[in-house]
Structure formats: structure tokens, C-alpha cells
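LAB NOTEBOOK - FOLDING QUEUE
OPERATOR: T.R.
BATCH SIZE: 2
PURPOSE: Compare the predicted C-alpha cell outputs for two unrelated chains run back to back under identical settings.
PRIORITY: normal
REVIEWER: second-year student, initials M.K.

ITEM 1
FIELD SEQUENCE / FIELD STRUCTURE:
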Amino acid sequence: MDGFNWTIFKDQIVQVNNLILFGLLIVLLVAAQFSSAKTVEEIIEKHVRARGGKNKLGAIESIYMEGVKEMMGKEVTVKISKQQGKLSRTAVDTGVAYGFVLITDTMGWTYFSLRTPAALEMPEEELADLQYELDIVGPLSEYVSKGHTAELIGKDTVDGNRCYKIKLTLAGGNEMMFWIDTGTYLLLQSKLTFTKSSSGKKDSYKLYRDYKEVSGIQFAHSLQTKTPGAQQDSPDVEIVFHKILVNPRIDPVLFLPEQL
């Protein structure tokens, strides 16, 4: 064929083939990425299994946790009693003073002996922010039936550990973030954004460490709370638990704010 350059034609064919191969490679890489990517449902399911499984978590009706934290250079005893969906009472004993935060499904109170002679009723907006504490196993377990919605934000790092970052919108409207270890699937960090507090919108972080098995369920025995911008009277604190009891009897008097 006059004027036809076979060398150029062959080069063009090679270029087209290379483009096709490159396109196929991109498609395969994308497909592999999607096939290996986990959905938020799968991650939460593995988290629940890592803690002990849905059946064991669902069987928790009450819990008692006792530990110590440091306050003004001294060890302070912390006792937490909870009844699923009904009660959360955190009591602090310094040896010279006593206080508690009491939350029920309808009301809440705070008390500290050096500040007030009787428990003070909690404002409704603050109670609404804290009632998530009534959920002993946490909002991730059975989150759909609880009316929460979950979204996988991506991956992040907490103290050098790769984590899945999950956003949970609670049924009441507040938002929580959870950082779940990509290896162990245990919770390493959470963040609650308070939206109804009288002091305005603020974030509270919790760091979970030193997991140990209690009654077949994994519990963090170190809990550190961080509140960015916290005032001097509410600094970051760490509670180290030395006793955790699953399904103990909860004394009915703990529901009473008069029980000082």
C-alpha cells in the first residue's frame, strides 16, 4: 500500500494495547479495594464478637465497677452501679468528701458534700446528654434496634494503632465517634459531642485501655476521660478499675437522690 508506514501502525497498535492493559489494571485494583473494604455493619459485628458476642452482651442486666482515680494528688475511690436502661450512679469518695452523679430514665441529680447539703436536680438538657450512660454495653451493640445510625468515616490512628473511625448518630440526636482497632476490633477511643448542654456544644473523649475478660466479656480496666477546654475543676482523669461484677443485685436505694 503506497505511503503506508507499517512501523508507525505497529507502534500505534502497541500503544492501544498498553492503554487497554493499563485500564484493566486500574479496574482490577479498584475491584480488589472494594472487595477487601469492610462495611460499617461488618466492623461493628466484629467489634461485638471481640467483646464476647451479642448473646453475652445482651444478657447484661446490671454492672458494678470499682476503681481509683487521682484527684489533687490523692487517690479517690470511684464506684459505678448501673441497671440496663434504668440507672447509672457514679459515686466518688475522697475520704473527706462524697459526691455522685445519678441518672435514671426519667430524671438526674448531682451531689457533692462540700458544695451543697442535698442533691441538685439536673436540668433536662443536661440529662438528655447523659442518658446514653444507661446503656451498659454501649450504643454500638444492636445499634439499629436502638434507633441509632452508623457511618464509616475511614481509618485513623490512636496511640500508634490503626483504627476504623465510625460516626454514630444517636436516636436522641447527639453524635458519637468510635475508634475501633483494625486488629483486635476492640474500642480504643470514643468521642461524644454534647449538643444540649447549657454550657454549649462540647466534645468529651474517652480512651479505653487494659482490656481483661470478666464473665466472658472484654472490659477496659483503664478509662481516661479528656474534655478539651475543660475548666480547672474538671481536668482530664483516668480511672483504673480493680473490680468489675456482671449482673450483681442493684440495691433499690441507689435510685434515690436522698441516699447520700
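ITEM 2
FIELD SEQUENCE / FIELD STRUCTURE:
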Amino acid sequence: MDVFLITVQQIFVLFSIIAIGFFAIRRKKLDSSAIGVLTYVYSNIMLPCAIVKAMIFDFALSILKECMYIIGISVFVIAFELLISFLFNKITRQPKLDQNLYKYCILFSNFGIMGIPIIETVFGSQGLFYMSVFILILRIMINSYGFMLLQKDTPYSTGINIAMFKNKFIIAMIIGILVSILNINIPSPIQSLIDTLSRANAPIGMMIVGMNIAEYPVIEMFKNKLAWIIVVLRLLVIPIFGLLVLWHFHININAVLAAVTTLGLPCPAYASILSKKYGGNYVRGSQIVVTSTLFSAFTIPFLVWLCNFVYGL
């Protein structure tokens, strides 16, 4: 079946699960404490299992070379995102804390709770492998520079802390890569456990997204013009730029689909959560998060179609 049609079907399924999470909170079948419990289980168990599974591959120098290309391109795209955020803030002339929020939303996407389930469901373990490589630098940045952005000019700002780099995603990547390079045989029961837990990654992750959206007054989220500009940059401009760069360097289509979809993911929920915690513009952050999340249901299939069109598939 055509990749575009598969994407549309899977996005429908995943966003239906988002709706289940949304109505579970809105109808008070679950309370807000359930979000924290599920997020903890997802972040500490299911997500690492999915990453370890994706990073186990038949090691070859050609794959290592391809990964280095992908990481190099990701750095180039990050530079473009920083330029876009600088120009946006220069033109709009918003308060300093708002500028930091906008830079955060332009620079980072929701590649954790939302991105990994989407990539794994649509493109499988191979897609998740390419995504993990592509976001390696961003993952380090979001735990250091990202936190600094949303804490800046507040009494909570503490600078770079080495603990920010002790990330379960990165640790899981290293474990998977070592297993592959050293050709370690994982016992069948453990392999089966990893496979079973990683299969729960998508439904739990997407349900958490829906539960988080339910915390906001959804209709109010669509009323800010600057938020819409950020959404267009996040969901369309940045991934299309990334597609052109990847195509120019003749990166294989599977890696391109994973990378471009990752770039086209919505803004992370931390944009509103940390803004509220550190005295930033919580409402503006919420508007960007909710709007970009809902409209990514339409833009992600479009980006997949565009990738196939550019590659002549």
C-alpha cells in the first residue's frame, strides 16, 4: 500500500487514541494525577524499551557513515531554526520571556511523547532508528539549552547542569548501539519483554497527549495570531527546509521520511508546563502547543506525500 495512505490510516488511529485520552479527562473518568502516573511509566519504561529495540541492528560501516551524515544535516537544520527564531523575535519585538518561549517552540518539536509513537507506528523500527539518530543533538539541547531558555531572567536559572545530559533516551540509544556493535545475544525472554513493552509505547504516548490537551480551554487556544505563525513555521516551513537539505545530500527515503516527519511534529508540552513553572507566558505557550498538535494531524500526512513526490515515488 502507498506510504501516504498508510500514514493517513495510522495518523487517524493515533489521533483517535488522543481523543480517548482527551475525553477521559474531560468526562472526569480520570483525574489529572493520572497524567503524571502514565507519563512516568511511559518515559521510564516504554520509551527506553522502544529506543533499545530500534537501535539494535546489523552493524556495518556504511550505516555508521550514513548516521554521521544525518547528524551533520541535523546540525545544519538546527542552525536554520535558530536563524528563523532570531528573525521572528527581531520582527515581532515581544517581551524577553516571550521571545525565549517562541525560540523554544521553533527549535524543538514533541519528538518524545508524540514523535516516537508516530514514527514507530508509521515507519517501524527502522524509522525510529533514523529518528533517534537525527534528534540526538536536539535531545541534548532540549535538556540543556531548552531548559535555560524557559528559565532565563527568573530566579530559577541555574545554567548548564551535567544532570541534564543524563537522559533515558540517550542511555537507551547507547545500550542499543553497544548491543549491536559488540554483537551481544539478548536472551529470548528479555527480548520478548522489550518487544511487548515497546508495543505499548504508541497507545500510552498518544493517550498522554490527549490528556494534556484536555487541561486547556481548547477554543481559546486558536485566538492568537503570533501562535499561528509559530505553528506554520513549526509544522511546514522547517520540515520542508529539512526535506530540501536531505534530498540535496541524497539521503535514502526511509531516513528522509523519519527526519522530515520529526521536524514536522508539534511543539512540546514543556513549552507551556515550564513557562507556568518559571513565570513565563503560560497561556501563549498553551496556545502554540494545542494548535500545533491538532493541526499536525493534517500536516504530517502532507509532509509524507511531499517526501514521496520529491523522490519521485
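REVIEWER COMMENT (ITEM 2): The CA atoms of residues 46 and 197 lie 5 Å apart.
FOLLOW-UP: none requested
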